[in-house]
């Protein structure tokens, strides 16, 4: 029996840098059958088709008709149009982040998702970063979060502010662990090379008192992607770039202290013991994981890991950060 009959037929829209990665991974996936791809740049598409053997569709509608799932890896400006066309034909959609360019477009996609009873997932790939996955279950009611996402300059992505290009990764990750509404946002951004801000800092205050301080830059001399979470009796550090984690916890000191116990005593005389945990980080391909968990959600009729609703909320907060630049 041909196992391919049970694979979801998928088509990719957009064959740029990231699109080519998606094409390669989907072609090797055991959960998808790669039918082909569409790209508005016919010359680039023809080169890719010839080099890798993928089927090039010069008509977006024909590709949509031929598949079960559309993977949208086009520039952000076209996300809405591509997703709308696919959803109106009953196709499930995976959309690279950010979900769309405007909050209004994103909410329209939410309506289409309900109307046509399809599933959607947004490509917030850091949710699948093995370092974050290793400790996310230990992050409980953090009250202070600090995130730094710094990148060397790359012209690709400068069509949007650094908040939508880089910071939105951390916004989504933070929203996934802070169970509270956003109360207030203060931010500043500076355009150095691009027409839109290249470096930005945002302070996001939540209703429960949690504060997140985020910095993003695409004009740094080195790459860095680190987040630190501070909560009662624990400090958790996640290095998204190096795939490393650090967990430092405190508990009441034992009555009889050991020679190697690390003990702290506060001004009130309360003693706490410090101990370290080293959660195992399982190396993975985060992009393949996000694509294949979406296939699982479709097959099993479960909720995707990063829903369109969550992608919309991350976009809403990101746009509010950009708006706060003006204040």
From TrEMBL:
<dbReference type="InterPro" id="IPR000683">
    <property type="entry name" value="Gfo/Idh/MocA-like_OxRdtase_N"/>
</dbReference>
<feature type="domain" description="GFO/IDH/MocA-like oxidoreductase">
    <location>
        <begin position="160"/>
        <end position="222"/>
    </location>
</feature>
<dbReference type="InterPro" id="IPR036291">
    <property type="entry name" value="NAD(P)-bd_dom_sf"/>
</dbReference>
<dbReference type="InterPro" id="IPR055170">
    <property type="entry name" value="GFO_IDH_MocA-like_dom"/>
</dbReference>
<protein>
    <submittedName>
        <fullName>Predicted dehydrogenase</fullName>
    </submittedName>
</protein>
<dbReference type="Pfam" id="PF22725">
    <property type="entry name" value="GFO_IDH_MocA_C3"/>
</dbReference>
<feature type="domain" description="Gfo/Idh/MocA-like oxidoreductase N-terminal">
    <location>
        <begin position="8"/>
        <end position="124"/>
    </location>
</feature>
<dbReference type="GO" id="GO:0000166">
    <property type="term" value="F:nucleotide binding"/>
</dbReference>
<dbReference type="InterPro" id="IPR051450">
    <property type="entry name" value="Gfo/Idh/MocA_Oxidoreductases"/>
</dbReference>
<dbReference type="Pfam" id="PF01408">
    <property type="entry name" value="GFO_IDH_MocA"/>
</dbReference>
């Amino acid at each position: 029996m041909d196992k391919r009959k049970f694979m979801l037929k998928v088509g990719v829209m957009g064959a740029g840098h990231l699109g080519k990665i998606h094409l390669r991974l989907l072609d090797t996936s055991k959960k998808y059958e790669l039918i082909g791809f569409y790209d508005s740049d016919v010359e680039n598409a023809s080169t890719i088709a010839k080099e890798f053997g993928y089927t090039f569709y010069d008509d977006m509608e024909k590709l949509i008709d031929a598949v079960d799932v559309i993977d949208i890896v086009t520039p952000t400006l076209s996300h809405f149009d591509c997703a709308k066309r696919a959803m109106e034909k009953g196709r499930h959609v995976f959309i690279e982040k950010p979900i769309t360019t405007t909050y209004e477009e994103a909410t329209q996609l939410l309506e289409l998702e309900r109307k046509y009873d399809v599933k959607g997932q947004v490509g917030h790939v850091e949710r699948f970063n093995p370092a974050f996955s290793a400790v996310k279950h230990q992050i409980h009611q953090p009250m202070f979060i600090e995130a730094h996402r710094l990148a060397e300059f790359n012209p690709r992505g400068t069509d949007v502010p650094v908040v939508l290009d880089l910071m939105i990764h951390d916004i989504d990750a933070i929203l996934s662990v802070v169970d509270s509404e956003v109360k207030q946002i203060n931010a500043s951004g500076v355009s150095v090379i691009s027409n839109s801000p290249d470096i930005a800092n945002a302070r996001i205050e939540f209703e429960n008192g949690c504060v997140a301080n985020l910095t993003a830059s695409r004009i740094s001399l080195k790459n860095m992607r680190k987040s630190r979470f501070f909560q009662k009796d624990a400090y958790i550090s996640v290095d998204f770039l190096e795939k490393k984690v650090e967990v430092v916890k405190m508990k009441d000191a034992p009555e009889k202290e050991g020679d190697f116990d690390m003990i702290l005593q506060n001004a009130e005389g309360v003693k706490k013991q410090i101990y370290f945990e080293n959660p195992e980080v399982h190396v993975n391909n985060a992009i393949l994981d996000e694509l294949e968990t979406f296939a699982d959600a479709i097959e099993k009729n479960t909720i995707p890991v990063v829903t369109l609703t969550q992608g919309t909320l991350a976009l809403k907060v990101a746009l509010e950060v950009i708006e706060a630049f003006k204040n």
